[in-house]
Structures
1.
Amino acid sequence: MIVVTCLAPVNIAVIKYWGKRDEQLILPINDSISATLSTDQMNAKTTVMISPNFEKDLLFFFREESCMSPRVQVCLKEIRKRASENLKGKKNNQGIDLWKAHICSENNFPTAAGLASSSAGYACLVTALAKAYNVEGDCSSIARLGSGSACRSVFGGFVRWHKGNQGDGSDSIATQIVPASHWPSIRILILVVNDARKKVGSTSGMQRSVETSQLLQHRASHVVPQRTEQILKAIKNHDFETFAEITMKDSNQLHSVCLDTYPPAVYMNDVSHTIVEFVHSYNKIKGTTKLAYTFDAGPNACLFLQEEDVAEVVATIKQVFPPTNENNYIRGIKVPEKILDK
Ligand code: PMV
C-alpha cells in the first residue's frame, strides 16, 4: 500500500477567470493571474491510499463517504493514464496504475462559499494522487480538469494560468510568474462576510455569462490582455499602487459581468459594497492606494496590502465593522496572510 498526504493552499485571483470556451476540458476564455496563500492558514488536506487489495475507488469528505463526482473521476482517470504511460517498458512494473484509491479530503475553511475552496481541494487531490501513482511533470492541467482555478494553486507565489490556444487543452496550463520571496511585503486579509454556500455556483454562473453577457466577450478580447501585461509589470516592479488599482478594477468588472448576465448572478451583498466604499475612503484619506479589494463568486472580501500597513488596517476594520451577530456580518478577520512559497 502507498499512502500520501498533501496540503494545498487557496489562491486569490487578481485577474479573474470567468467563462469557459470548453466546458468539458475546462478551457477558459481569458488568461488569469493569482496569488497563492501560504499553506499554514486556508488549506485543503488530502490523504490518498492506493493498494492492489482495494476493490473500488472511494472518497471520504470530512471522514464521511461521499459520491465521487465526475470531476474527481476525471482527475483520477487522467493520473492513471499518465502513470500507465510512465510505467511502459519499465522493469519492476507492479501495475500500480491499476490499483484502486481511497481518498480522504477536508478543508480548514468554508466549502463553496466563494472562498476558492475548490482551487485548494483539486490542487491537493491531484498533487496527492500524482505522488501516490508516481506521476511527474506538469500537474496543473490535471488540476484544471477538477476546477479551473485549481491549476493555479499547484504553484506558490504569483501564478498565471495561460488560456492556451489548442483545442485539446495541452497548452492551458499554469506557470509561476515569481515566487513569493520576490515580493515578501505583500499580505492578504480575508474578510468573511458570509460563509454559507453560494446560491449560484461558479460553474453555472459562468455558463450563463458566456451565453448572455456581451460585456464578457468585450472583457475577454479587449480588457484582460492589456490588464494582464500591466499587472505582470507591476508585480515585477513591486508597484503596489498599479497592482492594487488593476486588482480592484478587475474585481469590479467580474461583478459587472455577473450583473450583465441574464438572469443576473449576484454574489456581492450590502456588506461587500460597504467594504468597497471603506477601501476607497481609506485610500483617499491616506492620499495613496494602500489597500485593494477583490471578490470572487461570493460576498467575502480579500484585501491586498503591504506588511507595514497591516496593524493600522486591521485596527480600523475592527472599528468600522465590529463583529456583531453570528450570521451575516464580518465575523472575524483572519490573521494577516503572508504569501509564502510552498
Ligand atoms: O475554479 P472555479 O470554477 O471555482 O471558478 C473560480 C472563479 C473565480 O474564483 C470567481 C475567479 C478566479 O479566477 O478564481
2.
Amino acid sequence: RTVYVNGQYLPEGDAKVSIFDRAFLMADGVYEVTSVLDGKLIDFDGHLARLERSLSELDIQKPDCFDDLLEIHRELVRVNGITDGMVYLQVTRGAAEDRDFVFPDPEEVKPTVVLFTQSKPGLADSPASKKGIKVISIEDIRWGRRDIKTVQLLYPSMGKMMAKKAGADDAWMIEDGHVTEGTSNNAYIVKGDTIITRQLSNDILHGITRAAVLRFAREAQMKVEERHFTIDEAKDADEAFVTSASTFVMPVVQVDEAVLGDGTPGPVSKRLREIYLEESRKAAI
Ligand code: PLP
C-alpha cells in the first residue's frame, strides 16, 4: 500500500514519523475519515471544513499541503485501487525537540501530515447494516471538547471492548442520564415518525454524516428534533440508529436489554440509509 507522509508518497513500510511527534507523546493531533464508494470521496468538503476547524480550535498550524488535500486523497485512492473503503487523514502539531507540555513555537515545528487508505469491499452493504447492531450504555467520561476530532481515542476503544465483552457491537455514552453519542458515531432514536438526535454543542462531535442525514430527512419532509434524550427514552423508542462516515446510517436493534420494535431494522432507519447512500453517491467527487 502507498501512503502519504509529509509531502511524499511512500510504500507503507518506508513511512516514518518521529518518536517526538506530539501525537505519539500527547495525542496532540486531529484526524478525519472520508469514505470512498465507487472510487469517489463522500462528503469531502465537509471533512475538510471540520479538519480546518479542529486545527484552529487547537492552534495547530494549517499544513502547507492543506489546499492539495483533495488531490492527495484522490491520488491515494487511485494508486491503491480503492473502489470501496476509506481514506484516513491525520494532522499533528508536529515533532518538538524535547518532550514538553507547552506547545512548541510554530516557527520551529511543522505539522505532521499522514494519509493512508483502507479497502473495504462491499462497504455499503455490510451484513450489520441488514441485521442492525446491539449497543450497551456506558458512562461518558471523556473530556469536554468532544467537538474537536482529536486522536485521543482510548476511552472510545475501551467502550468498544466493553461492548464486545458484553456480546454487543458498540456502546452509547451517557452523561447526566442523557445519551451523548456512540463511541465513533452520532446516536438517534425514532419515536413514531420523529427522528430525535442530540443538539450540537461541545459535548459531541459534529458529525459530517449527521449534518447530511438531517438535511436529507428534512428535505424528505421527515420530522426532526434536535434535543437530548435519556437512555430510558432510547430503550422505549420505536427505532434507533447511528451515523458515521464509515457506517453511513446503521440501524440499532437493541439498547442494553431492550429490544426495539421487532428486533430488526425499522422503516425510518432503512429509508434514511437508502436516501443517504443514494444522495451521497450522487454528490461524491
Ligand atoms: N461521534 C464520534 C465520537 C466519532 O468518532 C464519529 C466519527 O468518527 C462521529 C460521531 C461521526 O462523525 P462523522 O459522521 O463525521 O464520521
3.
Amino acid sequence: MKRTTLTQFLIEQQRNHNTVPAELRLLIEIVARACKAIGHNVGKGALGGVLGSLDSENVQGEVQKKLDVLSNEILLEANEWGGHLAAMASEEMETIHRIPNRYPQGEYLLLFDPLDGSSNIDVNVSIGTIFSVLKAQDHVAGKDVTEADFLQPGKQQVAAGYAVYGPQTMLVLTFGHGVFGFTLDREMGSWVLTHPDIRIPEETKEFAINMSNERHWAPPMRRYIDEALAGTEGPRGKNFNMRWIASMVADVHRILNRGGVFIYPWDAREPGKPGKLRLMYEANPMAFIVEQAGGAATNCVSRILDLQPTTLHERVSVALGSKSEVELLTRYHNEA
Ligand code: AHG
Ligand code: MN
Ligand code: MN
Ligand code: MN
C-alpha cells in the first residue's frame, strides 16, 4: 500500500495544485511537529506529571490546567524560530506574541487553542489542539504587527486545522481545497494520510449540545432541540441521537466522519456574552474545516466566516456540521 506522509502531501499540493506556498508548508510542518510533542505529553498522563491544575487563570477567567500552559509553550517555542510568522495569539495569552528579534520574521499570523477540552484532561477523554493561519495583510516589513492585524474575518484564513489526541492521534487540515486527515504512526513518528477527502454527510439524526443549559437558551434554540427530541411523533418525523464529549475537537471530529450538528448557543445567564466559544481560534478554524467538508457553520444567525472580529478573545455562538440541520436552526433564529 502506498503511504503518503504529511511532508509528501504538502509538497505535492505545492507542486501539482499550487495551493500551498512553500512558507505555509513549512509553517504547517512545524505546527504538526508541535502537535506531535503535545500528543506525546498527553499520552504520558500521570506518569509525566502533566495532569492537574495550576494556580493561574487565563484572560477569560478559566483556571489553567498544567497541559493548557505546557501545550501553549510547546507551540510558541516550536513556531518562534521557523521564520514564517509575524506573530502568534492563543487562548492562554492575553495579548499577541511577536516573534523575537533574534529570529527571522515572516508574513503569517498563527492563532491557536493549545489544548481544547481542558475538562477532559484528567479523565483520559479525547482532547485536541485547534489552529488558524492568517496573513498579515497590510503589514509593512520592519514594523511590528499589532492585535489589529489579527482581526480579520475567518474567510481570510489561508489554513486551519486541529489535532485530536484520542485512541489515535490525528491531524485534520484544510487550505481551502478540501479537508485531509492524517493519522500519527507512533512507531515511525510520521503523519500518514488516511482520510484523503473528508465530506460531512448532508443528512443526520445526531446532535451535540450541552443539554444541561436548555432552560437558559433562546426560544428558537429550544424549538430546534424540542422538535428533535419529539422524535417520530414530532415535526421532524425521525428519532435523534445525542452525543456530547465536551471537547469541541472530538465532537467536530465525530461530525466530520459520520455527520451531525455541534451547537454551543448563547445563554441567558450571561446576556452580554454572545456565546462560550472563542471566534478566532475555535469557531473560525472549525467553521473553515466544516465548510470545506461540505457542511455549514453559523452563529445561529449568520455565517461564522463572514463575522468581523473586534477583539482577539471575542466569543461567539456556534452551530456547525451537516448543512440541512445548521440551515434549519439558523432559519428558526432568523424568523424569531
Ligand atoms: P477549552 O478547554 O479550550 O477552554 O474549550 C472548552 C470548550 C469546548 O471544547 C467544549 O465544547 C466546551 O468548552 C465544553 O463546554 P461544557 O463545559 O459546557 O460541556
Ligand atoms: Mn480554556
Ligand atoms: Mn477550546
Ligand atoms: Mn483550550
